[in-house]
Amino acid sequence: MKYSKNQFFLLILCCLPSCSYISGPEGLFPETKNKFFEEELAPDLNLPSLDLAIQKEDHYPPISQDIPLAEIQDIPSPRQIFSSGGSNEVQLRRLGELMWVYVESLPSTSWPITKSYFESSSMPIIENDPDAGIMLIKYSDSLNFKVTIEHGIKESSTEIFLTTYLTDPNAPNASEPEFIQKELSKIVEFFASSASSFSGTSLAAQNLNDRKKARIFNLNDRTIIELNLGFDRAWSAISRALTAGNITSNDIDRDNGIFLVSYSVESEQKGWFSFLNFSDDEDDGSLLLGEAAEFKIILKPENDKTNIYVESLEGSSEDAEALISKINELLS
Predict the structure, then answer these.
(1) pTM for the complete prediction?
(2) Which domain holds residue 299?
(3) pLDDT tens digits for 166-203?
């Protein structure tokens, strides 16, 4: 037994030198990772005829006297995008008699959750068109629901509307706001309990994600926010955005679609935008603005849409651009 152990030990000692013999610098298969240091440039090709030439395309020619400088191109700024943060917020919102469910998720995600709600509520789905965002639901023998799912104003948001229509003309109408509010509240409760844990998405409803209600563009060196909303809803959305940004209006003119506000650009040195019309502490380092408004926020209806832009009354055009950018962020 002891003799066998000695033989095994001697065999290992014999194999160790063989490793360097195989893969070492002088072995059969040496490493080649440093071979590139030995590379040399090959001589130029000898072409058989002077008429032949190798065509070379230089995508980045040097700037010289023979090559003029490219003219400055007027490239539009990219659309500003602000994410809603994925908080899965669900709300029942109302403007007059118009009510809808607001969900902070993409329509392609809200679609299967809405469909699951009606399926679990034992309300048969008569027809569904995910590309159009419409479901027809049978509520009773004489009453049906029409559910419309649309992209909201925010970058990742959904708005769900519910209307009723009668299948029996002699049946009593059930389109009262109280009835609609009750049914929408049930949808809100279902979303509140399901949205955070629901991970599915509908590929068939992906087109709904592209139909945003808000877009920003530049026209004649002026940035404009276009809302695919009527004036009443657009006015409500801007009012809600100004409130969320702690922007206090000096004056409003709803008939002409005008907000008058003051805007402090100097306060951005602290790292935040400030919209200051009052202050309880005169030593807080902020700029106090007087009663006179510096900027005018204008809402102008265009067909079924509403355009929002900012005019500078006592500031520069750059300040007006900063204000419209802030409004776009608050809307998003």
Answers:
(1) 0.60
(2) 213-279+286-331
(3) 876 666 565 678 888 999 999 998 888 875 666 667 88
